[in-house]
Amino acid sequence: MSAGGGTLRVVIATALPLVLLPAPARSEVGQVNTIKETIERIYSCWRAPPLSRANPMDITVIVSFNRAGQILGKPRITFETAEATDNDRVEYRVAVMEALQRCTPMPFTESMAGAAAGHPFWIRFHTTGPKPQPTEKRAWLLQKIL
Fold this sequence. Notes:
- This protein has about 150 residues and is of the alpha+beta class.
- The chain contains four helices and three strands.
- It has one domain: Fusion Protein Consisting Of Minor Coat Protein, Glycine Rich Linker, Tola, And A His Tag, Chain: A, Domain 2 (2-Layer Sandwich), CATH 3.30.1150.
């Protein structure tokens, strides 16, 4: 019995470290396993407003997710290009919220879900294109009354 019991102890002692060590996170196709993949996924959902509706601008949003990949709380806009008009700001804010809606719930792996839950992600959307030309001030046309 001691020979059989000794063999069992060796097998358990050998297998125990394998059970206790954390298994590397395996992401299935389409799952998000890193911060970089999270940002890339959100960028893939981004659709900038067409130039006919808004001038190009930069906008940054802070968003947090829960373990299930759903948006936690309310996303917050923290930066918008200073030269943007009110219309540009509204169009881009709507585009950001639509991108977040298209991408959620975020398909996190189990390990990423634990790491991302409740932590803020700063996401900057940068669009390129012709910048609006500033309106020329024609001081020489203003009448000066003395």
